[in-house]
Amino acid sequence: MDFEFVIPVSRDDLLNKTGVNQFVVDEVLTLREISGAIQDIRAAFRSKGPDCIFEHFDVFFSVLCLQKDVDTDVKEDAWGHIVKIAIQLSTKLATVLEEELDPAIRKTNVNLVKMTCYLLCQFMEMLESDESKPSTNQAIRGKSRKKKTSSMTIDWAKERESGMKTLLNLVQLNIHRLWDPPVVDDEFVSLVTNCCYKILENPEITHAVNKDCRDAICHIIGMMVKRYNHGLGASLKIIQLLQHFEHLVGPLSSAVQVCVEDYNYKSIVSELIREIGRMDGADLSRDTSGTRAYSAFLVEMTEKCPAAVLPNISLLLCHLDGESHAMRNGVLAAMGEILMKVLSKDDLDEKMKDTRDQFLEKLEDHVHDIHAYVRSKVLQIWLLIVNAKCLPLPHQENLLRLVIGRLQDKSSSVRKYAIQLITALLKNNPFAAKLSTQELELSYEKEAEKLKEMMPDEEVEDANESFKAKTEEEWETLKKDLLPVVDEIAEDEENRSTPASLIAEEDTVELVLEKIYTQLTGSQLKDAVMLMNAAKESFPDIATEKHNTEQENEEEEKESVAMDTLTCLKNLFIVKKHASHALSATEAMQTDTQRDPAVVNEIAKQQVLVQYLKESLAFATQLQAAVPVISQLLGSKNLTDVMEAIEFFVTGFEFGLTATMIGIRRMLPLIWSKESGIKDAVVAAYKRLYLNPQGGNARSKAQAIVNNLSALTMGATLCDLTSLDGLIVELMKSGELGQSVIQMLWERFTMKIAGTTPDESRAAVQLIAMAAGADMAVVKTNIDVLVMEGLGPRADTDLLLARDTCLALLKLSTPKTMKGDVASDPYRLSETHDMFTSLTRILVKSSTDLENRYWIPLMEQAVNVIYKLGESPDIICGDLIKKLALECSQTGDVSEKDSQEADEDGNPLDALEKEDEEKVTFASGVLSRLLSLVGHVALRQLVHLDVAVFGEMKRRRAIQEQKDWIQTPASKQNRTKDNENIEEEMGLAGAAAEDAESEYIRKICECEVVTGNTLLAAFGPLLEAVCSNHQKYPDQELQTAASLALAKFMMVSSEFCDQHLQLLFTMLEKSTSPIIRANTIIAMGDLCFRFPNLVEPWTPHLYARLRDESSDVRKNTMQVLTHLILNDMIKVKGQISEMAICIVDHDERIASLAKLFFNELAKKGNAVYNIMPDMISRLSDPDIGIDEEHFRIIMKYLFSFIQKDKHCESLVEKLCHRYRATRVDRQWRDLSFCLSMLSYSEKSIAKLHENFMCFADKLADEEVYNCFCTIISKSRSFAKPEAKTLIDELEHRLESCHKKGLNEDELVERAGASPIKHKGKTPRKGAKTPAAHKAKPKRGRRKTDSSDEETGPGTDTPVTRTQHGRGAKKKPAAVFNDSDDSDIELFEVDKTSKKKKGQAEKENESEGSDSEPLSPKPARPRGKNKRRLNPLHSPLSVSNTPV
Predict the structure, then answer these.
(1) CA-CA distances (angstroms) from residue 121 to 174, 188, 297?
(2) 3-class secondary structure, 1435
(3) Average pLDDT for residues 1191-1195, to the nearest whole number?
(4) Is residue 848 a contact partner of residue 891, using CB atoms and an 8 Å limit?
């Protein structure tokens, strides 16, 4: 063969002959000729085998040249022939390469290999390109989720795999022998590797079905790297591919692994790391996609071959300080992989241990990285290390401390992994399965005491301390003798020879120091001082060295370079003394060991035990410190925070951490979460903790569950019990609480289980009540048991048991019906039922036991039970009131005769109504309980009428309508149905009847409950007397009960409310008891809903309670006003500034409530914007009494809700106009600060220009000027180029006014405004004013805008000609129209009237409650007071005697 095939750089090189023996393509066939030529190849391959390629190379080459026009079938046929040729060639070469090769055979076969590999690689690239190219249909349809269709008839994935394996078989042979010299051409290496890299660019290569193809490519690259010197080229190509193809991280890391493990070529790792280490940090931070790929590649490469990465990891440390956080993540993750797979072995040498510690320190440092992603990634790495049990014990304490600090990180992902890491440290702790700090502390103290007793004579530490003190005393004595010697030598230093001459050349530092110490202890002080001076000159480092070895308690002053002679002598003396003491101690220990090795062994064991307990206690204490922080995360808005916190508390509880009980309790309210994930996690957590007892039979497990649930009720607050109720309901619905647990609860309630305490019995009935919330049959089938046990003899003294029993009975209710269905018969019991007689007996009998504080809670629940389950509740409660009134009258000094008269008359209230002359005294405690009962009965009677009676009337009406419909003939039914459909469409169906029933109920409430000739009405005068005369009834509890009862009475009847509203507000303001004020303000909120028109004139008195001295009153007022305003029951008026002041209340709860209120108010349209001008005016008024710092805090918070540009523009103009109405410089500063809080657009800046005159004369004030400078700086940051001119001009004008103090004429001239000479003069016609840009209003009607509620001075009304006369000057007044359209003059306050008003208020406050009561401020009525009663269901007959 006389030609040589040269692998071309480009395809056209094979068409032009540049060498003597170079192979060239003779002819490129046409499309018609190619099909026939391929058929000839089949015959030639049968006869000649792979050598046929010499004759038919032109055919294959023609397919490559005309690939765009050649049919797919032709390409596939050509590809099939090439694969067959390559397979047969590899078989042939395996035999040829085993023999001696003569030049002719070598040349033939090398050409054959080159030509075959060239065609094989070129065809693979061509077909891969065709496969990945989208078809015409796909290009038209665009993106589609359906699998990509191909025009090929062959399965290219399998063919590609076959081609790669064939190519691998070829290059695995010793084909380098075919070259002379035996070095493969670089062109051949590039041909093969470029084909592999081209295939890898297809993202589909990462699919699982292409694993064999990827493996073949990896081995080809490995073979090229190992045998054909492709190492450097491969590393550069890998870096290049990673930059552009992020999906290649996995395949390329696998290729590197193959190179390292299968071909033992580790230098590729070094080259790759060196290339990545050389990259510029700034470039990496810009190219985020490439950097992510580099980072992920580093991690995967380290994961697959960590030992090869470890020697080169130092090349990457520079990126830890770089700008790219992704690269920092990669380097740190690589360190973590090395720590887990290489540096976690037990047989590490010192060098490897140092490396491990350095890696751990790097990871600890980046726990506080500036980027949240890095902090999060580092915590994930630590989590992997801990779970792999690769964390060295000495690093655990410091790591836990760092992680606890990250619990309050601003990033949620960091907090998430911080909690996970703490939980993992707890699960994998090397100490104990139970980490109770109390038990560990007791064990540690016990074992430490035992160790102390085992020590020989005295504890080593005590011996060391005493020796230190003794050494210090010896030095102080020696120092007194040394001072004169040092001074003497210092004076005669010039007359003596060179000090260095005292030290011989062969003397070492140690020898000289030993001589000095010997002279010191031998009283040769002068020689010692001289020798020390010589040593300092001969050995300059001696002072520094000794400075580092100095122990403690240094009183001498240290110098920066070296110390003086005296300090050097002291250091030497102390060090030598300690060395001799340590030597003697060691010898003593050795002697003890020789004497009794068993004792020493026991001491060593005890020391290990004490150290173990000490570290365990430190670990548990650290975890305890993390509990409060994690418990706060239970209230986080972030879902992951809550989920991880729940997991931590469950794990901590299982490991015996006592503090985690706090979190277990705080988890309970999460049962009401709207997030189903959180709710399910809470249920699963409590199921895991309390419902999975280990071991025992079914009964013992049920008893364990009951014990666990009962423990939750012990010491629980009302919030905890409510949440536990929700949890039990969920557990009942899911079937977790079986019948065996319910049965055990009943046994414990009835105290059939031996050893049951009263507390456990009460807990059982509470849990029964909770379970009945999910299944009412739990209580309904055992009513007699509840009444017999819960309201039996035990309840006479245990009122809590009776109260809890009532709560269980309240679970009996009528099941709800679907809309449109007729309600079912209500569940009610006869008034003679044992339940009601027992309740009456308990309440009357225990009413005189004033030491029992649970009577009123029991009474409230008992009345609730009577009204919910009693057939005639008003009769039952009436009898109860009479009996209690009789009991109350008998506690006084009533004569036997009077009692008899009272009994004969049958009205026990006659004794209550006797005049003072009869000297009838009542026990105030019993009376307060009577009044509480009366008030609660009145309220329940209202609810009973409103809900039960009204619902029963509706139910009976619906039943009657059904009966009438059934009895109506069919012909009439059709006509009636048509009429009813018309009425339903018009909304009239049943409305008339319902209105009549509602009006009937309303009349009963108005005239027949607390007014008229009823039992409850008889108590009205008594309530009024007690509330209005605190001198006659001074008892605090009586006053509290009477005020609450009065408020409940007022809820029933508007007539009664109107008569006593003034008295209630007087108590609200002038009562000395904060409890009464706090209760009354809550009652006022209910009255506002019930009778809004009656309470509205008194609204200012409600706001006044925001300044109450009691924090509880202020808190209740804030909650009530928030509820009323957000539900549109009270208009947002000027008094809302009082709520804004609460933002800076010293009570954190009140401040949080105030912020929450404004946050919710901001969601109601423009509500905050509308109140802002009036708010600013009121809060900046000096008479309000709020200081400047608090004003700024409030405004900074409120202005955060002003986001719209048009609102900012409007406020800019309004605030500018306010400057003219200010009285003191404090108001200038406040307005300027408010202006600086706004965000500015181009229009807002223009507004400042237009109204520059308003504030120009105030710019001399430094703080005012600074605020405007802040406006300028804020505006520049986001201003457009056209706006910057306005900003620059404004800045120049501000600076000029601030420095020069321009007079008004100059300002007018510069601003181009009208020449106004004096304030208050009306501008001339046509002159510009600060608000001249506004359009003039049309005649007849002025258009108002809800977003612009205030105008500047002089713009309240259109200017008319009569204003241009020479009339008297009128002082301008800024006016703000609030949402109620009431004009409020701002800043212009008559001081004289204010003083008079203040004095009058003080006089009123100084008087007692018997003084003249408060009167409401006039306000417009809000229309007729109509109300619609919400119906429920009850079969009460209204014909019963009313209470």
Answers:
(1) 19, 11, 27
(2) coil
(3) 91
(4) yes
Residues near 49 by Cβ (< 8 Å), separated by ≥ 6?
A: 85, 88, 92
CA distances (Å), origin 497, targets 470, 501, 530, 838: 37, 8, 11, 115
How many whole angstroms separate alpha carbon 254 and alpha carbon 247?
A: 13
Q: Which two tokens stand for residue 202?
A: 């297809």
Are 812 and 869 within 8 A, CB to CB? yes
Mean pLDDT of 1015-1038: 89
Which tokens belong to 1155? 């912020």
Task: Give me the long-range contacts of 469-475 (CB less than 8 A, separation at least 24).
Answer: 471/573, 471/574, 471/577, 471/578, 472/553, 474/573, 474/577, 475/570, 475/573, 475/574
Amino acid at 72: T
Tell me the torsion sign for CA atoms 640, 641, 647, 651: positive
Q: Quick check: 327 and 291 in contact, CB under 8 A?
A: yes
Peptide bond into 8 cis (omega under 30): no
Sheet holding 1383-1385, edge to edge: 1350-1351, 1375-1377, 1383-1385
The helix (run of H) or strand (run of E) holding residue 1384 is strand 1383-1385
Digit-coded pLDDT (tens) for 172-197: 888 888 887 888 888 889 999 999 99
CA distance 557 to 488: 21
Contact 348, 382 (CB under 8 A): no
Cα distances (angstroms) measured from residue 464 to each of 392, 461, 579, 580, 581:
31, 5, 12, 12, 9
CB atoms within 10 A of CB 1140: 24
Let me know if 34 is exposed, middle or buried by CB neighbors in 10 A (0-12, 13-18, 19+).
buried
* C-alpha–C-alpha distance, residues 812 and 466, integer Å: 78
Is residue 415 classed as helix, strand or coil in its secondary structure? helix
H and E: helices and strands count for the chain: 63, 3
Which H or E element spans position 1385? strand 1383-1385
Look over the chain and give the mean of its residue pLDDT values, rounded to a whole number.
78
Cβ contacts of 1266 within 8 Å, gap of 6 or more: none
CA–CA distance, 593 with 209 (Å, rounded to integer): 70
**Nearest CA among 603, 555, 570 for reference residue 454:** 603
Q: What is the 3-state secondary structure (H, E, C) of 851-896?
A: CCCCHHHHHHHHHHHHHHHECCHHHHHHHHHHHHHHHHHHCCCCCH
DSSP state letter for 1442: P
Q: Which of 693, 191, 96, 640 has the alpha carbon at shortest distance from 419?
A: 640
Question: What's the pLDDT band for 1415 if we cut at 50, 70, 90?
Answer: low
User: What is the rounded CA–CA span in Å between residue 564 and residue 556?
Assistant: 9
Distance in angstroms (rounded) separating the CA atoms of residues 810 and 765: 12
Q: Any residues with CB less than 8 A from the CB of 1164 and at least 6 apart, and which? A: 1126
Alpha-carbon distance 277 to 317, whole Å?
8
Tell me the whole-structure pTM to 2 decimals. 0.71
Contact 223, 271 (CB under 8 A): no
Structure tokens at 427: 């699960």
Q: Which two tokens stand for residue 1277?
A: 């940051």
* Average confidence (pLDDT) over 1098-1113: 90
Q: Tell me the two tokens of residue 857.
A: 């809670």
Q: Tokens standing for 769?
A: 């009540």
Q: Are 1098 and 1060 in contact (CB under 8 A)?
A: no
Closest-CA residue to 273 (of 305, 301, 239, 315): 315
Distance CA 671, CA 659 (A): 21
Positive/negative CA dihedral, 1279, 1281, 1287, 1292: positive
Dihedral sign computed on CA atoms, order 869, 874, 876, 877: positive
Contact (Cβ atoms closer than 8 angstroms) between residue 1374 and residue 1352: yes
